Each structure stands twice: as structure tokens, then as C-alpha cells.
Amino acid sequence: MPTLFITFNENPALLYSSTIILGLLIGSFLNVVIYRLPKMLEQDWKGQCAVLLEQSLPKEEKLTLSTPNSTCPKCQHAIKPWENIPVISYLFLQGRCSQCKNKISMRYPLIELVTSLLSLFVITVFGASYAGLAALCLTWVLIALTMIDADTQLLPDNMTLPLLWAGLILNAFGVFTSLESALWGAIFGYLSLWSVYHLFRLLTGKEGMGYGDFKLLGALGAWFGWQSLPIIILLSSVVGAIIGISLILIKGKDKNIPIPFGPYLAIAGWITLAWGDQIRHIWLG
Q1: Residue 219: which pLDDT band, with cuts at 50, 70 and 90?
Q2: Which residues contact 111 (CB under 8 A, 6 or more apart)?
Q3: What pTM did the predictor assign?
């Protein structure tokens, strides 16, 4: 075991405090990913369409995760580094832009807090280890995918496919399950929702879900093995039913408006990460 892992495991206070701070910083970065990545994809798609149609696009600044600098959407005030400290800056600014006093969404500090708390929980389960480091990365990606799908009903390939490959590579070393189980988990995970999708479209003429959902379940199968797929599907259905019914009852959401399935898969995948062994023992009696 690397010396750094040993040091952290021998000093729980250092491990947990470092995880909290790292989680807050990663949560701040995830806010950028959640907001910008769909816009970057849209910008790229427009460019590809313009090339195919031999049309010219209006000149606009190339958007990346690092450029341009973050600004207030109302007054375009460039956000200073001291105005971008996770959670603390939001509290200090009282949730408003320092220039125009435009209200800043509570969502930003909430994502930072959730990322930090989930990261802390993962480390308490896995400790400072390769499995703990991998579980942190999975947690962060699932948070980003949840929010992106909730906002845009998109699960970007440049997140789901690397997640699938990461699961297979990790389990080549037996981090969470065997490579054989991970391989069949990826295959069965993808094909199970793919089959449901085509059967539903055949019976109703409608599309019940997107291809990103297939890839995400395939990725979760690659991380946890084919044995976990029934648990993940069952948990995602239960979580989806609870949240969907709550939205209808509390917010009066139209039940005919489609609700993305990706967030429920992501939540079910994280629950499997945290309590998968206990759930499997109960499942198998």
C-alpha cells in the first residue's frame, strides 16, 4: 500500500478533513461541468451540421471547461477567485452577485455540499485505498450525470463510455468484482435496457428512454458485475417511482411530461456502491 494511503489511514482526522475540502472543490468544478458540457456539445453539433450543410456559423467564443472565465449571467461581472470559494463565498455574498445583486441559485452550494458529504461517506466505507479513490471518482461522475440528465435529458458519451472502460480496467485487478463478472455486467446492462427500449417502441410507437441510459447501466454493470444488475434496476425503479409521484403530488408536475431515467440509475448505482454487499446478502437470503 502506498505511503500516502498508510498516512491517511493512520490519521483519520487528516483523512476526513482532506476529503471534505477536496469534495467541496470537486463540487465547485462539477458545477462548471454540469453547466458547460451540454453547451459545449451543442456548440460542437452546430459546427458539424454547418460543415455537412456547407453553411457558415456566426462567430462565437469557443466554450471549454476552463474558458471563458465565469461571469454573472445578468451583468457579466467577472467572478473573482475570492468570490468562488465553495459554499463560503455564497454565504459571504448572501447568495447575490457582488455587483448587480442578482440572486445566485442555491443549487451551486448544494451541489458542493452534497459532493463533499457523499465523498466523506465513501471514504468512511472504503478508507484511503485504490477502491476508495475509484469510488470517489465514480461518485463525482454520477453526480454530474444526474444533474446534466435532469437539466437536458442527455447522458453524454464522453462521460458514460469512459466510465464503462474504467469499470472494466479496475476490475481487471479485481477492485470491485472479477473481470468476467464486469464484462458480462457491461454486456447485460446495455442489452437489458436496449431490449426494453425496442419492445416498448414496438408496442407503443414511442421512445421510452434514450441510448445514454443503456450505456450508463452498462457502465454500472462493468463496475459492479452482472450480479448487481437486478438490484440496480429494482432500486432505480423504486427511486424513480418515489421521486416521480412526489413531483406530481407536491409540484403538480404533468405526468405526461417525460422524466429522465438517468438520475435514478445514477442514484441506484451509488446506493449499490455504498451498500451493495448488504443488499446482495438480503437479496440472496
Answers
A1: very high
A2: 27, 30, 31, 34, 143, 147
A3: 0.93
